[in-house]
């Protein structure tokens, strides 16, 4: 790698990590706001996950987009959510009309859409599905089973990767919205623990290695933990942390993106148990440059005075990691 290419890569990575930390500290917007959805790569659908398009009510398919948008009968209109002949904009408009006035059969239909897979390259549908999940959560549609349906989808090996990835994100958002001020002894605490564990299980599932889901899960779990009493979140991390250390070291298989995500996540949790390993990686000249870069940046998140002199020595040198060290030192001033 040439010096010029490395410097460009370094600057981009430092900027990206700084942006992530800023997002993580701010948290997600309120329930009615836009959910930040991690982009996922296009994948070939596994043969056992292909399903036929859901049937449309008789007459719906004959309507044009304007008629659908103006349809007063929401129960009939939502059946057009899966219609590929209806534009993305109009389908999103229909999804935003989802409300608590729906009959139980309509709510069942919407939950059924969580597993709808039109097949092929259908990016529009995943945008619509994300909107459906967001609206149902924000407006309390099917609130008595919302998290249970998401947990089932997260665990469903036959579901499409994008749907499972979205389910992880919305489940974490549900935890964030419901978990604040929760008593560890309450029945709701049991639900929170089950939801946390469902997300954690995607990280330990070897069949998901190489997909977007574990990376989404580690970041989502980190954010969800912020809203929960330690009695609920700590047991999940205690079971997960040995694997995370093994992944960071490269002892357990994990791609580079996952390994750097773990470094970011444990730093944001202020996990002192992982700090010695991150210090070691920040000083390791033989380690993958991206891992060293992320580890140096993570020291700025920890803000331990013990690391300040090392960061200053890097920042004031001609070392190719000096920009990462300079960025980390700025966090000590906050």
Automatic annotation (TrEMBL):
Q: Which Pfam families match?
A: HEAT_2
- From which domain of life does this come? Bacteria
This chain belongs to the protein called HEAT repeat-containing protein
The organism named in the record is Rubritalea squalenifaciens DSM 18772
């Amino acid at each position: 790698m040439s010096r010029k290419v490395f410097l460009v890569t370094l600057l981009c990575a430092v900027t990206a990590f700084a942006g992530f930390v800023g997002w993580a500290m701010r948290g997600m917007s309120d329930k009615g706001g836009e959910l930040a959805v991690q982009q996922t790569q296009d994948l070939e659908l596994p043969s056992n996950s292909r399903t036929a398009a859901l049937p449309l009510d008789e007459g719906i398919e004959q309507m044009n987009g304007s008629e659908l948008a103006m349809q007063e009968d929401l129960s009939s209109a939502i059946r057009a959510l899966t219609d590929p002949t209806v534009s993305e904009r109009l389908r999103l408009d229909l999804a935003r009309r989802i409300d608590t006035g729906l009959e139980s059969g309509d709510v069942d239909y919407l939950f059924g859409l969580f597993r709808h897979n039109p097949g092929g390259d259908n990016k529009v549908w995943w945008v619509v599905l994300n909107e459906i999940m967001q609206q149902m959560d924000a407006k309390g549609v099917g609130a008595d089973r919302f998290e249970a349906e998401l947990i089932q989808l997260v665990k469903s090996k036959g579901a499409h990767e994008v749907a499972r990835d979205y389910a992880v994100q919305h489940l974490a958002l549900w935890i964030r919205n419901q978990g604040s001020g929760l008593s560890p002894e309450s029945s709701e605490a049991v639900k929170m623990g089950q939801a946390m564990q469902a997300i954690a299980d995607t990280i330990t599932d070897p069949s998901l290695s190489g997909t977007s889901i574990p990376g989404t899960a580690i970041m989502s779990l980190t954010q969800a933990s912020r809203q929960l009493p330690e009695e609920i979140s700590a047991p999940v991390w205690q079971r997960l942390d040995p694997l995370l250390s093994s992944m960071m070291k490269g002892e357990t298989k994990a791609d580079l993106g996952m390994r750097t995500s773990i470094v970011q996540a444990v730093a944001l949790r202020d996990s002192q148990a992982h700090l010695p390993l991150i210090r070691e990686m920040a000083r390791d000249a033989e380690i993958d440059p991206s891992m060293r870069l992320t580890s140096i940046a993570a020291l700025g998140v920890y803000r331990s005075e013990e690391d300040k002199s090392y960061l200053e020595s890097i920042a004031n040198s001609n070392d190719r990691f000096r920009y990462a060290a300079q960025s980390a030192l700025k966090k000590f001033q906050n």
